Amino acid sequence: MSPRHLLLAVLVAAIWGFNFVVLKVGLDEFPPILFSALRFLAAAVPALFFVGRPSVPWRWIISVGLVLGVAKFSFLFIGLKAGMPSGLSSLVLQSQVIFTTVFAAIVLRERPKPVQITGIALAVAGIGVIAWDYGLSSPLLGFALIIAAAACWGVSNVLMRYARPADTLRFMVWVSAVAVLPLFALSALTEDMSALGRLDWSGAAAVGYVAWISTLLGFGIWGFLLRQYESSVVAPFSLLVPVFGMLSAWAFLGEDLSGLQAAAGGLVLAGLAIPLLLGRRAARTAVLPEPLVPAGR
Predict the structure, then answer these.
(1) In terms of Cα–Cα distance, which of 31, 33, 35, 48 is closest to 178?
(2) What's the pLDDT score for residue 276?
(3) pTM for the whole thing?
(4) Exposed (0-12), middle (13-18) or buried (19+): which is 287, by Cβ within 10 Å?
(5) Long-range contacts: 213-218, Cβ < 8 Å, 24+?
(6) 53 DSSP assignment
(7) Maximum Cα–Cα distance for the chain, whole Å?
(8) For the chain, what percentages of helix, strand and coil (3-state, to nearest 5) are there?
């Protein structure tokens, strides 16, 4: 990977990690489902006029829009609102890798390799320690909601495997558009929407960041990198997201990790990193019958 593209990969991880701090700011201004609806509205409406028609069948766009846009982000935002620390959430949410592997094995008949099973076991152990330690001092509802968000993310990853969008940014714009109306309907049924009449600069800035910086810019750069390199080269940079998330939460929100949580976080990151890094090494040393095609092309 060239130095310029390396910096872009780290930049995306930093954007997505800092996003968890911005979410806390936004959730101080809006109810969680309404905040999610505003995020997708701001991400979809301007961009729809520039990205063109979707390049995949509508059934996949609607499915991912409901599972990822509505369910995953509702669980995530409600979990954060319920008190789950943003830094810890950025780490626990990475358990989506575990759910993706399990769901792919069930639905796509993709048999996990021994190194993947080892990694999942380490990550599950780390998540279990975090749950136990967090549950000693805080209600487990917020933690359970973040896990539910990760499970929905895993389902959406399998759906995206079926969809195989050639342009990740265009796909995400249309997924965002699908999520808008269901989220506003859920908010109207369950929340006080009067916050719309009290919109101030901090709320507007939070919506703008999560919509335009985290969603459009972040996925735009990520999709560009996936078109340039194999997914095994790009994917490990996602491990930096919880690192930036926890550092940002410490620097801007004053959140601290206990020693036990830090050790458990190391287990989770090790469990996620081992299959990626060893799998990449195996791909470099394997004798292949034909050249590998970079992901996304």
Answers:
(1) 48
(2) 65
(3) 0.84
(4) exposed
(5) 213/15, 213/19, 214/15, 214/16, 214/19, 214/22, 215/39, 215/43, 215/172, 215/176, 216/43, 216/47, 216/169, 216/172, 216/173, 217/15, 218/12, 218/15, 218/16, 218/19
(6) S
(7) 62
(8) 80, 0, 20
Residues 271/119, Cβ–Cβ less than 8 Å: yes
Q: How many CB atoms lie within 10 A of CB 133?
A: 18
The list of the chain residues with pLDDT below 50 reads 282-297
The residue whose two tokens read 């970079």 is: 294
Q: Is 125 exposed, middle or buried (0-12, 13-18, 19+ CB in 10 A)?
A: middle
Q: In the chain, what is the straight-line distance between the N-terminal and C-terminal CA atoms, in Å?
A: 17
Give pLDDT, residue 109.
78
Angle, in degrees to the nearest 10, between helices 218-228 and 3-29:
150
Tokens of residue 60, six digits: 């996949």
- Tokens coding 17: 């990690």
Q: Is the dihedral of CA 162, 167, 168, 170 positive or negative?
A: negative
Q: What is the pLDDT of residues 178-236, one digit of tens each?
A: 999 999 999 999 999 888 888 889 889 999 999 999 988 988 888 788 778 766 677 77
The set of residues, in sequence order, having a beta carbon less than 8 Å from that of 108 and lying 6+ positions away, is 158, 161
Among candidates 216, 234, 218, 217, which has minimal Cα distance to 226?
A: 234
What the block records as the tokens of 192 is: 């006080």
Answer for the pair 243, 91: CB distance below 8 angstroms, yes or no: no
